[in-house]
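Quick one: structure tokens for this chain, please?
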Amino acid sequence: MADQADATLLAAALPAPSADGSSFIEVVGALGLAARTVNAGSAGAAVPDPLLVPPRGRTIPRSLPSDDATMLAPAVPDRGAAGDLASADPTLPAVGPAAIADASGDATLRSADSIADAPAGPGNAAQSPALLPATPLPAMPASPAGAASGLLATPGSPATPGSSAVAARPLLGAPRSLLGGIVSELVAAKLLGERRAVSLGLQAREAGETLMRVLARELQAAELEPIFEFLAERCGQTLIRQKNELAERVAEAAWLPVALAEQRGVLPLRPVRDGEAPYATLDPCDLLLRDWIARISGLLPVPVPTLPDVLLETIGRLRTRVELRETDRALIPIDINWEQEQRIRDRPDAVDIPTLVDFIVHTAYEQGASDIHIEPAEDGTVVRDRIDGILHEECRMPLALHPALTSRIKVLAGMDVAERRRPQDGRITAQIRRMPLDIRVSSSPTVLGEKIVMRLLDEKALRPAPEQLGLRDSLLRLLLDKIAAPHGLVMLSGPTGSGKTTTLYSCLSALDRQRRNVLTIEDPVEYRLKGVHQMQVNERIGLTFASGLRNILRQDPDVIMVGECRDVETARMAIQASLTGHVVFSTIHANDAVGVISRLIDMQIDPYLVATALSLPIAQRLVRALCPRCRTTVDGSEMLGMLRADGVSDDKMARLGLHIDAREPCNHAPGCPHCRHTGYAGRQAVFEMFEITEPMRDLIAAKGFSADELRHLVQAGGNATMVDNALSLVADGLTTHAEIVRVFGDGTS
């Protein structure tokens, strides 16, 4: 702080700025050469306080260019008790651009704490450590300009008697090829302004980085190219400007793996001459990096300047390529062509078991199945796929193949092949058409053999944006508002397989994960989301939702996702977390959005806590969407006839609010090969949600809470039910009345 105060006082007293509006003291600050004046009787001696202190025992080799300069530190006058400026020593050199002298030869840069402090002068409570020069430079006369300002002497002019010219002692600082010389040359070449040099120099000192790395990060590309062109010319190298040029020159070096290259910000290049280790870098002047490469490679390092965006993007691509290669080693490739598929369908007992398992998984994946059921039956093994929520028989195989099929799947899933009496769980990571596929495997013993169920977890389908969920505009705005809120509890409800996990992940993907700490506790972790810290329940070691949530609350979270509130303790902790300044997402089993509140109260959660904490209850279902290839319309009378043929009564339609005009056209799809003759392809989410208002809070917290009263209050506020939203999909031509009856056939809204 003393340095800053002195520098501020000195800058304020300067007579006039330079042509670009900055004074020389700013350039001095950027070069890292600030110093204090130590009073010793009538003469002041400057004790420099360098920005960057070289490592202890660091030696500059003789091989450095002869123009690597010994730096002179400008003296910042110290103030005595009365605030007077220190007197100047006219025998010491003044500071200016011409005060950078050339020096060559060996010199040892000693750390600041290895040099004894100079004696304290009057008014000086403490002194900064110094780096003493190897050879003192000749003194320069002071300038009469110092008399005008009372502070600074200009080089090349005699001192005026009585002037308070600032004195400085020569400082052996960083060589020009490391920091100061390059900066001074960039300023002299008008590639970098003095004021900008000050700012970048201070940032470099605060961040503990070299100035060139800070410069590469802060400046725009248009400003960087001439600077890096200048650096390349100084290094005697050709600047690498293009990504393809760098990609052609990059070499794989055993001494520099990609992870370490990314950490250091360098890439090894193909050598032109034997015994050399050329490398692409942002800072060819970094001697520490140069020595590190020489040490780990055992070769002569040759830095090649490279534009920052070119280098960083190439490093990112190489890292991605390495990650894919490492991932591919763990993936189980599954590839079945058309000829193999036809042969297996004709003679499943004529192919080997591994190919048969690949066929089962590949076929299910191609058809968009969510689950595969391999079931033993009296007349053989039945393979069924769950597509759009409905099970479809895929094929039948001889029962004699069943033990071998289950054993192969258990081996791939890491399960105990010999154990057939107890249920087991496992996981397979496969690759189909170069796309990763996560498969959860569950085995269950039956009287006819083990039943295997495999759930296919497609990562692409688990991370849609909230805008892709199919929400109405008003509901989408409401959901996004609650996601961005500083606190609150968002609770989803719905049966198994209703898309709750997909909705939760879409909410997490909409969060600002760079500025917020997001943690989850799940059972299981179905998808790894970047920037989210995910924990998986493991009841065998006592890691439950409640214990995991208790640990998460000690991790300074901003957003918490609890996979499911299964018990009172978990629900109570989730509510407490939302009341203490966290956004909490969770799920619960209830029939509709109002049922979320009823379920929490039934779990013995205090009603006033529910009313205060809960910000958005959500209920959702999935309805099948009409096949776009065979979609058509039929008369309302024909639709009524089909519904009645399926056993749908008029009372059931009345409970659901279905009113079909016999004279109006209705959507229908007879089926085609594309949709497996079902008339449906894909599914669409149907939501019900409402914001908790003050009248609703009063009703929830009141004694004798009535769900029916709350439901009437919600509907009176203009909030649509799930059935209302589903019927709007029918009106939009996305689904059918028959599908609404199938999903909401019990009249639950």
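The two ends are 67 Å apart (CA to CA).
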